[in-house]
Amino acid sequence: MNAPTSKQHLAPAYIFSPPPAVSLPVQGEAARFAVNRIFCVGRNYADHAKEMGHDPSREPPFFFMKPASTIVSDGGHFPYPALSKDVHHEIELVVCLSQGGKNISADQALSHVYGYAVGLDMTRRDLQSEAKKMGRPWDTGKAFDHSAPCGTVLPAAQCGHLAQGVVVLTVNGQPRQSGDLKDLIWNVPETIAYLSTLFELSTGDLIYTGTPAGVGPVVAGDVMLARIAGLPDLAINVV
Ligand code: MN
């Protein structure tokens, strides 16, 4: 038998080529932020919990996930998805983790944050509502292709940690959603701490932190402009 060469050690053979790594641009850096997983927080602003018919009291946070492959970058296209007649925008602060861990304390949580971005948790509301009624998973409503547009990452080293700031989403220039980061029911450190009791977090994980009130439908031809004070804007075309 031939001894394996060093080349064989470095480059494993695959039956099919692995999918390309998913990454986001970083403001002021040539290097990109490689994305691992996407966690999303449900009902994290009282006014949105109320508009969805829920009690806005401070229950423990709950989470769902989207595949990293659902990311669309700033200036990109959101193809109107199949099998839905009610696709909603949800503007959210996205937290980008530099390091992971389990049972991270809220006091230590911000030292695990690389930076922040503006995101959209796009939702097939009709499929999500059906899933809720039937007690089924939310994946078809939440985790479909192109469902996680995300803007350029701003390193915390440049912007500091965001605990307040206006959150605004317009569609074709018309205001739809507005809120303030200070009104998060579970703030960023608390969310990281809680999530890290459920999952061992990793470098490259993103957390979409929930949306304020004003969610609503989009149609093909719409332009969504998502803004959070201090962060690069996110513009997405519905096609
Ligand atoms: Mn959401």
Provide a descriptive summary of the structure in words.
By secondary structure, the protein is α+β, with helices and mostly antiparallel strands. The chain has one domain: Fumarylacetoacetase-like, C-terminal domain (Fumarylacetoacetate hydrolase, domain 2). It is 18% helix and 30% strand. The protein contains seven helices and 18 strands. It has helices spanning 6-10, 46-51, 106-109, 125-134, 139-142, 156-159, 188-198, and strands at residues 23-24, 33-34, 38-41, 63-66, 71-73, 77-78, 87-89, 91-97, 113-120, 123-124, 148-150, 154-155, 166-171, 174-180, 206-208, 216-217, 223-228, 234-238. A hairpin with an 8-residue loop joins β1 and β2. The chain is globular. Bound molecules: manganese (II) ion. Manganese (II) ion (MN) is lined by residues 40, 90, 92, 121, 210-211.
Task: Compile the SSE list and pairings.
Elements: H1 6-10, E1 23-24, E2 33-34, E3 38-41, H2 46-51, E4 63-66, E5 71-73, E6 77-78, E7 87-89, E8 91-97, H3 106-109, E9 113-120, E10 123-124, H4 125-134, H5 139-142, E11 148-150, E12 154-155, H6 156-159, E13 166-171, E14 174-180, H7 188-198, E15 206-208, E16 216-217, E17 223-228, E18 234-238
Parallel strand pairs: 3-15, 5-11, 6-18
Antiparallel strand pairs: 1-2, 3-4, 7-10, 7-16, 8-9, 8-15, 9-12, 13-14, 13-17, 17-18
Total separate domains: 1
Sketch the topology as an H/E string, one letter per element. Answer: HEEEHEEEEEHEEHHEEHEEHEEEE
Helix fraction by DSSP (H/I, runs of at least 4):
10-25%
Output the CATH class name: Alpha Beta
List the ligand species: manganese (II) ion
End-to-end separation: 56 Å
If you compute it from the alpha carbons, what radius of gyration comes out, rounded to the nearest whole angstrom? 19 Å
Determine the structural class based on helices, strands and strand pairing.
Answer: alpha+beta
Shape: globular
Unreliable stretches (pLDDT < 50, length at least 5) are: none
Amount of beta strand: 25-35%
The average pLDDT score comes to: 95
Number of helices: 7
**CATH topology, which one?**
Fumarylacetoacetate hydrolase, domain 2
Under CATH, the homologous superfamily reads Fumarylacetoacetase-like, C-terminal domain
Query: Strand tally, please?
Result: 18
* CATH architecture name: Alpha-Beta Complex
Strand order of the largest sheet: 4-3-15-8-9-12
